[in-house]
């Protein structure tokens, strides 16, 4: 069997969830959209089900997957419904629903529902992606309340630059939020992972941790709270071939690496078809048999090559960590021009093996 695999530590997932709650002092919706950032939505939700205040996903398809797996906790649809017809399923499965646009308010006013909805009313406080305009926010709130179709409204917004510690934009967005809300008394939800870890002054009744649940930092620089996260995924494989090359020999497609000295090259069963970033350059950290070394040459579809020159004891069958507790996914992402979010979401083909369930 091909030795590439992703080990998922559900105990670490629970540690990170508890940390989100501890740091924020708030209730936390575990964000498990995009198949829990590649970690497996059902397994992750099951592992958190006993203690989580609820879950958040991107769309009803993802929510139904969790309901069909027996998850009874609240599930928030982060973009609400994409078409009006979804409202009957939202009603039937008792999903919580973001409302970010006037047409969604109108659809709820028209809807025939068995039970009143839980709505998270989203304000565009400056990210300019989705959300109601500040001038229409209070009106939308009043209409939803008056519709008789809604039993509770949480006030929500989303930050564009919370991962930049010295950026004034988050404070500006917060000020705009308070201005638009204009005295409305309701529960508030503003913080994603970087805002949970880095902006304790932003108020919240509910937080929405995503990437931090999976143990990766959203920051480019070291950050005190992020250092407390435990990586959940270990992407690992084995050395399947070894080459002893003299100086001056090219390795791999495009001869992107040429040996400068006699070089021992290890070939690892892992490639971009597994989700390892193709743009990882020579020098990207890799751990072989517990020792740090570097990627060399171009990453190909099913294999990549590493430098074993300084690791004489490593060879065929040696265990390789591509990312995990020792090689941080965020470091691999940074040198590859990516982010850990994308690395995790790109995971495919490799079997996921769970522990700590
Ligand atoms: C994805 C998402 C989150 C989680 O973001 P992280 O940066 O992964 O913590 C929170 N809120 C909304 C609205 C999202 O879409």
UniProtKB/TrEMBL annotation:
The modification N6-(pyridoxal phosphate)lysine is found at residue 33. Residues 232-355 form the Alanine racemase C-terminal domain. Keywords: Isomerase, Pyridoxal phosphate. It comes from the Bacteria. InterPro entries: Ala_racemase, Ala_racemase/Decarboxylase_C, Ala_racemase_C, Ala_racemase_N, Ala_racemase_pyridoxalP-BS, PLP-binding_barrel. Substrate binds at residues 129, 301. It catalyses: L-alanine = D-alanine. Its EC number is 5.1.1.1. Its cofactor is pyridoxal 5'-phosphate. The active site is at residues 33, 253. Pathway: Amino-acid biosynthesis; D-alanine biosynthesis; D-alanine from L-alanine: step 1/1. Catalyzes the interconversion of L-alanine and D-alanine. May also act on other amino acids. HAMAP family: Ala_racemase. Belongs to the alanine racemase family. PANTHER family: ALANINE RACEMASE (PTHR30511), ALANINE RACEMASE, CATABOLIC-RELATED (PTHR30511:SF0). This is Alanine racemase. The lineage of its organism: Bacteria, Pseudomonadati, Pseudomonadota, Gammaproteobacteria, Pseudomonadales.
């Amino acid at each position: 069997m091909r030795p590439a695999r992703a080990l998922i530590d559900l105990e670490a997932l629970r540690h990170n969830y508890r940390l989100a709650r501890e740091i924020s002092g708030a209730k936390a919706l575990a964000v498990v959209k995009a198949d829990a950032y590649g970690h497996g939505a059902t397994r992750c939700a099951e592992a958190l089900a006993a203690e989580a205040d609820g879950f958040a996903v991107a769309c009803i398809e993802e929510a139904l997957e969790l309901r069909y797996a027996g998850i009874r906790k609240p599930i928030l649809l982060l973009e609400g419904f994409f078409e009006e017809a979804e409202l009957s399923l939202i009603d039937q499965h008792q999903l919580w629903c973001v409302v970010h646009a006037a047409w969604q308010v109108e659809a709820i006013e028209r809807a025939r529902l068995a039970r009143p909805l839980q709505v998270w009313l989203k304000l565009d406080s400056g990210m300019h992606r989705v959300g109601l305009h500040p001038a229409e926010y209070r009106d939308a709130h009043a209409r939803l309340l008056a519709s008789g179709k809604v039993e509770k409204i949480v006030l929500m917004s989303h930050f564009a630059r919370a991962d930049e510690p010295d950026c004034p934009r988050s404070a500006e967005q917060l000020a705009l939020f308070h201005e638009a809300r204009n005295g409305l008394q309701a529960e508030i939800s503003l913080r994603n992972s970087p805002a949970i870890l880095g902006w304790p002054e932003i108020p919240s009744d509910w937080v929405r941790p995503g990437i931090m649940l999976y143990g990766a930092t959203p920051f480019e620089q070291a950050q005190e709270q992020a250092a407390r996260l435990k990586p959940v995924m270990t992407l690992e494989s084995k050395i399947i071939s070894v080459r002893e090359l003299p100086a001056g020999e090219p390795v791999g497609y495009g001869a992107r690496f040429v040996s400068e000295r006699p070089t021992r090259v290890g070939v690892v069963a892992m490639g971009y078809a597994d989700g390892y970033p193709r743009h990882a350059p020579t020098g990207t950290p890799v751990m072989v048999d517990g020792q740090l070394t570097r990627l060399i040459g171009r990453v190909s579809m099913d294999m990549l090559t590493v430098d074993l020159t300084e690791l004489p004891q490593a060879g065929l069958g040696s265990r390789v960590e591509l990312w995990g507790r020792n090689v941080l996914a965020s470091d691999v992402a940074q040198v590859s021009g990516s982010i850990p979010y994308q690395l995790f979401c790109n995971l495919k083909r490799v079997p996921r093996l769970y522990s700590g369930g």
